[in-house]
Amino acid sequence: MRTFGDYYLGLKIMSNHLIRLSTMLLLVVSFTSCNQGPQEFGVLEGKVTIGPLVPVLREGEMPPTPAPEVYSAREIVVYKKDGVTEFARIQIDSNGVYRGELPVGIYVIDINRIGIDSAANLPIEIKITNISNTILDIDIDTGIR
């Protein structure tokens, strides 16, 4: 014969299982509702020019070509829309070309400044889409005069 205690213990065990099951179900629903499918990406790319590299050029002289280490010392810095939180850095190759894949969204682009480097058009807010590549050419002024 079962006693009231047996029924109470059985109900308590069932209640604990129902709480665990409800919690697991809530977590599954929460996780799947937050997951909005695969994230879309776009491309940011461009050409970087750096100069001047010497203080004076004589008439008819061609400006020197930057050495690979002149480019590799600099990076494209990608900030979140707030312009403060760094999101990524993109390397510049030895020809001054850079290319990076970013999630679709709005970003602020700048460079890591070496010495007195400046870039007239930076920082700049850009929009990355998955429809076409975003092209941003950058002219870095070294300040050499």
CATH class of the largest domain: Mainly Beta
In this structure, how is the largest beta sheet organized?
5 strands, mixed
CATH architecture of the largest domain: Sandwich
Shape: elongated
SSE series: HEHEEEEEEEE
The N- to C-terminal Cα distance equals 101 Å
Helix content: 10-25%
- At CATH level 3, the topology of the largest domain is Immunoglobulin-like
Low-confidence stretches: none
Number of strands: 9
Please, how many helices?
2
What is the count of structural domains?
Answer: 2
The CATH superfamily name of the largest domain is Carboxypeptidase-like, regulatory domain
Mean pLDDT: 83
**Would you tell me the structural class of the helices and strands?**
alpha+beta
Task: Report the portion of residues in β strands.
Answer: 25-35%
Radius of gyration: 29 Å
Descriptive report:
The chain is α+β, with helices and mostly antiparallel strands. The protein has helices spanning 4-34, 68-72, and strands at 41-51, 75-80, 86-91, 97-103, 105-111, 118-119, 124-128, 134-135, 138-141. Strand 2 and strand 3 form a beta hairpin. The strands form two sheets. Strands 1, 4, 6, 8 and 9 form a five-stranded mixed sheet that branches. A four-stranded antiparallel sheet has the order 3-2-5-7, with no helix packed on it. The chain starts with a helix and ends with a strand. It folds into two domains: 1-37; 41-141, Carboxypeptidase-like, regulatory domain (Immunoglobulin-like), CATH 2.60.40. Helix content is 25%, strand content 34%.
